[in-house]
Design goal:
The protein is mainly alpha-helical and 116 residues long. It has a domain of 80 residues. Helix 2 packs across helix 5. The termini are far apart. The N terminus is likely disordered.
Length: 116
Amino acid sequence: MKHATPSTLSDAARVACKQPRIGSLEKSYRKSSLSEENEREWFARVLWQAFPEAQSENHLSELVAEVLTTDKRPIHPKTVRNWLRCQNAPHFRYVLRILALAGAERVFEIIDPEVS
């Protein structure tokens, strides 16, 4: 039995392969209205909320790095500054830890931006 390869597929078969399935799981999930840039800005605001005692970006970067650093995963203040400037996105493990400090209600800002 010969298997179909891209060179033996008809044009109609190629189009059918690229179309989403009707029962696709994507339809069951609500799409977030936040872009990646907005998500990074949201996280930067949450950092400031989690550490209201910070007097400057450098001070905040040092505080966050100190709190998030572990023996296995050191965090440098420059990494935090990149998050604050929306140049990089943090790993989810750091988002969870910061949310715990800032307050779990911050999650609702990302789920439904109109709540805040």
